[in-house]
Amino acid sequence: MIRTTPFHERTNALNQTGLWEHWSNHLAAQRYQLSEKFEYFAIRNSAGLFDSSPLYKYRISGPDAERFLAGVMIRDIRTCSPGHAQYTAWCDDRGFVVEDGVVLRHGPEEFLLTAAEPNLAYLEGLTGRLDVGIEEVSDDWAVLAIQGPRARALLATLTPDIAGLPYFGLTATTIARVPVTVSRTGYTGDLGYEIWVPAGDALAVWDAVWATSRGQGVIPIGLTALYMARIEAGLVLLDVDFHSSRFAWTDADRTTPIELGLGWMVRNLDADDRAFIGRDAIARELREKTSRWRLTGLVVDWRDYDRVYGAAGLIPPKDHTPVHDEYYVYDDKLNQLGYATSQMYSPMLQRHIALARVPLDRAAPGSRVKLELAVSHRYEYIDAEVVRLPLFNPERRTA
Amino acid sequence: MPKTTARPQPRPTRPAKSGKAATKDDRTYDAIVIGGGHNGLTNGAYLAKSGLRTLILERRHLVGGAAITEELRPGFWFTTFSYALSLLRPDIIHELELTKHGFMPILMPTTFCPKEDGDYLLLGQDHGANLKEIARHSPRDADAYEAFNHDVGKVCQAIKPLLDMVPPDIFSDDPDELVALAGLGSHFRGLEKKVLHDAVRLLTGSAADFLDDYFESDILKGYLASSAIIGTKVGPYSQGSGLVLLYHILGEHDGDFGAWAFHKGGNGGFTQVLARAAEAFGAEIRLESSVERVVTTNGRATGVALADGTEFHAPVIVSALDPRRTFLELVEPR
Fold first, then answer.
1. For A299, which residue in chain B has the nearest alpha carbon?
2. Do A345 and B254 touch (CB under 8 A)?
3. Rounded to a whole number, what is the distance in angstroms from the first to the last CA of chain B?
4. Tens-place pLDDT, residues A43-52
5. pTM of the prediction?
6. A35 and B94 in contact by Cβ < 8 A?
7. 3-class secondary-structure state, position A246
8. In which residue ranges of chain B is pLDDT below 50?
């Protein structure tokens, strides 16, 4: 039986479309308005409210919790002091990514890990003799994300504590007399926060956030608008831009963190004395430069795009709907180089953009490739340029 | 040091001139643009981007020309003249990196047309809902609306490439011009007869005449005809209103014909974005600098003189003013 999130009573009343997607067996609004484009612009121009509650959440605690996470996660959790969060990933022994997620460090021995898919058995299987407890708390917490340039000013009217919160900082505070955690995290690549609320108090917190944001252009946003924002931000999505190495059938469907553009997580390996899972393979990949490809941004040459559609007698479509599907990338002689995994027309950038896997010798910004698109029932090869991720990265995101 | 201004600082190789006595060298540029409206700013930004030391001169205390938003009453900002964002060529957004400088279109969610009897026509973002709303006034107008959009879309498709073209000189014997002219001829010959016929009707006839062929409900015709008379002194039955209608439908945003957006902060907000882009590329913008005349040497424009007598010199002088003022007020007849 499909379930609803703790905010459902409010989100259901606001959803004018009746469109819901299924996310980890919960109803998640696809969009609230007839056009998701307004929700997308709310993220970039005012703020959007997103119900992230269906995320999997694990409480990891105990005297050895830090040692456990230091051995499992590829980023060094020891550099994340209490009151901070870390976007991280975990790998298998061969250095392939299992999943990515955010670790919130509430205290020296108290952590919360988010994940897109169930990981309890996997994590428990790695505890060995460490004194660490792992508890699934997915249903205990409702998560409300407020994302966009006005997020800070609006939240600060409810809890002034967050005004100085740094990027990926977190703080325990109260909203509407409910004890909550506010973290400066999100999945939009914009200034934004996530409010972690005990599930039973979700509506009181929603109502307070809703009341304070009236007249500010703040609206609830659905999954489609979120996906638009995350593609611009170059944030990868499980089962779209990569697959869990645990469940992939072949190595072609596995990816290393370096290939996935997460190499920055293991940048200081020489100064890092941890023996984390996948370390040897990652070190070898870095040393021997054996990455098979790199995830990068693509920007489609709009003139070539217009030319190809015009020649086919069509008006060039500029569809902002995020497409989570493979589109093949070629060189000038139509040899396949790689493939795009997500693409859309970005209304902010006014260009067609994609996240794509290209070989290392093509990964430098400015490299020219061709993207295969079906135009008028045949494949056409349209000029595109490799660009650095993120494609959209406003200063306010980290300022 | 904290930034005191939201504007990016000019590149260090092109320091701002204000605050110290200008030497002759300080008053010599590679290019001077007269007028800081949206055309002058765009032109100046491109000149600066191409590496020319560029000066943009604006008469008023703010840039924007006819695309300005001013605080006319404390706390209330007005977009005085040009108010909508459309027909902005994507090349300009890309090449001048306007997104980086604050480009922020704001879309219109709905169009509301009240009737005298208290009823209304409300069109929004959902195509299916719009057809049902139109059918409430006339069931046959619902699919007629589809046919109208399709037919006019075909005309837009035919006309739009011409917007980005420099019109060929039909009196020239330059082979390049003749090739361009031949290309234009084959473009029109390649069009379907109906598209050409519709194009001629819209370019020469009245909007009401065209709309009457499709629709029976006055409220829908009234809504569509409003685009045919905005900014003009003609009525929907006047000749020429068809062209105004077509021009408004040609207005495109994100690939949708007939879609018009606004800009954050009004159209003045948009020209501020253009100004930031121009300055980031190194252009210098001088406000309250009314150009009195173009300085000529041996029949060539070599500089400009301001009302206060200051002269600036450059081998390239661009006027972003209208031709009447440019040719009758700024330059002497040869």
1. B94
2. yes
3. 54
4. 999 999 999 9
5. 0.90
6. no
7. coil
8. 1-21
